[in-house]
Write a structure and sequence with these properties.
The chain is of the alpha/beta class and 257 residues long. The protein has one domain: TIM Barrel (Alpha-Beta Barrel), CATH 3.20.20.60. The protein is built from 11 helices and 8 strands. The protein has an 8-stranded parallel beta barrel with strand order 1-2-3-4-5-6-7-8, surrounded by 6 helices. β3, α3 and β4 form a beta-alpha-beta unit. The longest helix has 17 residues. It is globular, with a radius of gyration of 19 Å. It starts with 16 loop residues before the first strand and ends with a helix. The model has no long low-confidence stretch (mean pLDDT 95).
Length: 257
């Protein structure tokens, strides 16, 4: 959108970017996240409860703010990429990317033919302010939208060099729970297998000049992640965050009874 900073431009900042995962549709909650100062918000189509109108309304609610609005796909639906970009998403997050072939298909879905496979519907959608910015859009169709892949399997870790050699991949998220599960140690973040996988992702992403990150989890607090070079920090999820705040408030009140 014309009045917002391009998310990819923020990658050049020296400090880490902090974000929130939103799983339950509520434009006011998203607007609140922007007001509270998060750098990015991920609207979750994988585990979240968003419908198509929910996504559109939430992106509209964020249109006047400077928070970057990303959408995590439910899978590898390349047609969905164009749909969310048409709605004005600042970036796409794709779960469990394991091969360079998958990565190339995702990159192509970000661009119109003949370069890519994205269907053209820009003149009807908010990404071009309903065709008022169509001329500028056609000069740079991707409009700076970021493509972030998630590494959540041993295969993805093994193939990471090939995956990140695909031009058009902007960054990497580590999915700790799914990665440990695939490594045979569900949610055990203390194993050498998990530590080695994380270190390899960090090393390859750094060597390829890609921004990378994850959420804080046992053994990997925010301070340690920053020291290790993580600059995409997903520091919370809406429902657990709200539940934690409510529980703390109730405990504090009951202590006074």
């Amino acid at each position: 959108m014309t009045l917002r900073r391009i998310f990819r431009e923020r990658f050049g900042a020296q400090r880490a970017l902090i974000g929130l995962l939103q799983t339950h549709p509520n434009p006011s909650l998203a607007e609140m996240a922007a007001a509270c100062g998060y750098d990015f918000l991920i609207l979750d189509d994988e585990h979240g409860l968003f419908s198509t109108p929910d996504f559109h309304q939430t992106l509209q609610a964020l249109g006047g703010s400077d928070i970057a609005a990303l959408v995590r796909l439910s899978g590898h639906d390349t047609q969905a990429i164009g749909r969310f970009l048409d709605m004005g998403a600042d970036g796409i997050v794709v779960p469990n990317v394991s091969t360079s072939e998958q990565a190339r298909a995702l990159v192509r879905a970000m661009e119109y033919p003949p370069i890519g496979t994205r269907g053209f519907g820009a003149a009807a959608h908010r990404a071009t302010r309903y065709a008022m910015d169509l001329t500028d859009h056609l000069k740079a169709p991707r409009q700076g939208a970021a493509l972030i892949i998630m590494i959540e399997s041993a295969q993805g870790v093994a193939n990471l060099e090939d995956i990140l050699s695909v031009e058009g991949i902007d960054g990497v998220f580590i999915g700790p729970s799914d990665l440990t599960a695939d490594l045979g140690c569900p949610r055990d973040f203390s194993t050498s297998a998990y530590a080695d996988a994380v270190a390899r992702i960090e090393r390859v992403a750094s060597a390829r000049g890609k921004i990378f990150g994850t959420g804080p989890h046992p053994g990997y607090p925010i301070e340690a992640l920053i020291q290790r070079g993580h600059r995409l920090l997903l520091i919370g999820t809406d429902m657990p965050l709200i539940c934690e705040a409510m529980s703390a408030q109730v405990r504090k009140a009951r202590a006074c009874l």
